[in-house]
Design brief:
Distance between the termini: 48 Å
Low-confidence stretches: none
Helix content: 25-40%
Order of helices and strands: EHEHEHHEHEHH
Structural class: alpha/beta
Strand order of the largest sheet: 3-2-1-4-5
CATH topology: Rossmann fold
Number of domains: 1
CATH architecture: 3-Layer(aba) Sandwich
Largest sheet: 5 strands, parallel
CATH class: Alpha Beta
Number of helices: 7
Number of strands: 5
Mean pLDDT: 89
Length: 218
């Protein structure tokens, strides 16, 4: 029987990569990634490598306009990447205002154009404190809007909405995800910094899952 089509928003990080492995078991999967001027643009190279490994169609969309209209520590050289835990107040400097709604909107257009039935994104509970567009209330509202946006209905799904990053790593271990082909650090240097909120949470996740992080840290 022919598989139904699904679109996965793939950043190249461990959450969306784990999601891709999960979705690809059941669907004819198409991935979409976004270049929004992020300092950690190397995540896009990892996304491409993962799609090539899995034989999944992959599209990268230029969204660098976000760095102009929605400045953030992730996109602006004049704003330093904060260090610490995601629970710290200074991590809000990494918010790119309305990023997920913009990306979900474009991904919805792509899903409609290829007649996909589902659209997946990797929002999880660890993001809720600082990223408003990862909260359940946002997910519920945008899910309804996406369903109503076209005569071809696309269903939004966020399977990790109640997971923390450790839960995702545990699932990834079971799915045999190649985490060497993922990038999490907000700094786009050769090695991961190990000090930003993204690195801190990743390291905690691997510890919870009882697996070794294949990335090299400074």
């Amino acid at each position: 029987m022919e598989k139904k089509k699904a679109v996965v928003i793939l950043s190249g990080g461990m959450d969306s990569t784990t999601l891709l492995y999960l979705v690809n078991k059941k669907y004819d999967t198409h991935c979409i990634s976004f270049d929004y001027g992020q300092k950690h643009k190397k995540e896009l190279h990892h996304a491409k490598a993962t799609c090539e490994k899995l034989g999944v169609k992959h599209k990268i969309v230029d969204l660098k306009v976000l760095s102009d209209v929605a400045p953030s520590a992730l996109t602006r050289d004049d704003i330093k990447i904060p260090e610490g835990h995601y629970a710290d107040e200074n991590m809000k400097e990494t918010v790119v205002p309305n990023r997920n709604m913009v990306m979900l909107s474009i991904a919805t257009s792509y899903a409609i154009s290829i007649k996909a039935d589902k659209l997946f994104y990797g929002a999880h509970s660890g993001d809720h404190d600082i990223y408003p567009d990862c909260r359940k209330v946002f997910y519920s509202a945008i899910k309804t809007a996406i369903m109503l946006s076209d005569w071809h209905e696309v269903e939004l799904d966020a399977p990790f909405i109640d997971f923390d990053k450790g839960d995702i790593a545990i699932l990834g271990k079971a799915l045999d995800v190649d985490y060497a082909l993922t990038w999490t650090c907000y700094n786009g240097r050769e090695k991961a910094c190990g000090k930003c909120g993204a690195c801190t949470e990743r390291l905690e996740a691997f510890e919870k899952a009882g697996i070794v992080d294949p990335l090299v840290y400074e």
